Amino acid sequence: MLQQFSKNKMKLNIFYIFIIIGLNLNLHGQKGLPIQISDSEIKPLTTFQNQTFQQNLEKQLNAKPKWKKLIASKKMAVGVVDLSNPDQVRFASVNGNHMMYAASLPKIAILLAAMDALEKGELEETDAVKKDMKIMISKSNNAAATRMIDRVGYEKIEAVMTDPKYMLYDEDKGGGLWVGKRYGGGGDTNREPIKNLSHAASANQVCRYFYLLSHGKLVSEKRSKQMLDIMGNPGLHHKFVNTLDQIAPKAKLFRKSGSWRTYHSDAILVWGNDPSRRYILVALIDDASGEQIIRNLVKPIEKAIKGKATAKPVVSN
């Protein structure tokens, strides 16, 4: 009888272990990307804003006098999406709707427009097209980006960025992602209507782009996976990547950055083995030391992410 009791107790313990494992998997989601959720569960990032998370972000950023000054003068914008718990996404930003010149970062808009064109049969998926899409992102190759612009056209890029499905450029929210000029000069232009910028971005809209991408909602799950493959294993190891190579060498990184004169930008989706290191981070800076500032942002942002959460919403900035 004692032996039977021991067997039953062992079975019960194993049962509880499987329940705990199941709950843990549900809490942290599957190991890979994209995150699996239905279209109806995709919401505007503003619905994920959180007062404590916002306060933690502002506290970390304002601790550096120079950063505080740049933020006050709207020369620095930062956006963060915490994906550590897919069921409780959190979002915070400073100067999130402030659109800035973003150099090569908006090449992600060309990539999305091209994927949309490929999906609709408007563009043939040749080896040359696939190679140009890859190197315009991983190596930030300007010639490849220009060839892709010429293939899809400005009107297509604008149509996709303003598509109600994405709303990655919204005049009512300060603009967003835009490409209206070839990389390398020459030819006609199609500058965005608010500030007349040729290559533009805002932290909030770039966060939305990567949020949709991480959930497989850009064009289709298949095309989103293709885009993740293109953005993965960055070929340039500066800015965010430089720091993450040191503190999280095993984390999967998906990114696009840009620099021109004093304008420095970076956007990255970090997917660590540890669920607590899974997030989207975007920074746009107009300052000569912007590249170093972006490197130095990673650790304070991770501190902000690890702060305690609350469900109380905050007003969008």
Q: Could you explain the architecture of this structure?
A:
With 317 residues, this protein is an alpha+beta fold. It has one domain: DD-peptidase/beta-lactamase superfamily (Beta-lactamase). A five-stranded antiparallel sheet has the order 2-1-10-9-8, sandwiched between helices. The termini are far apart.
Quick tags:
10 strands; Beta-lactamase; alpha+beta; three-stranded antiparallel beta sheet
Percent in helix: 40-55%
Helix and strand element order: HHHEEEHHHHEEEEHHHEEEH
Please give the number of β-strands. 10
Query: What Rg, in angstroms, do the CA atoms define?
Result: 21 Å
Compute the number of helices. 11
Describe the strand arrangement of the main beta sheet, using strand numbers: 2-1-10-9-8
**What is the annotated CATH architecture?**
3-Layer(aba) Sandwich
- Superfamily at the CATH H level? DD-peptidase/beta-lactamase superfamily
Low-confidence stretches: 10-29, 309-317
What structural class results from the helix and strand content? alpha+beta
CATH top level is Alpha Beta
Distance between the termini: 67 Å
Strand content: 15-25%
Give the biggest sheet: 5 strands, antiparallel
CATH topological fold name: Beta-lactamase
Shape: globular
Mean pLDDT: 91
Question: How many domains, in number, for the residues?
Answer: 1
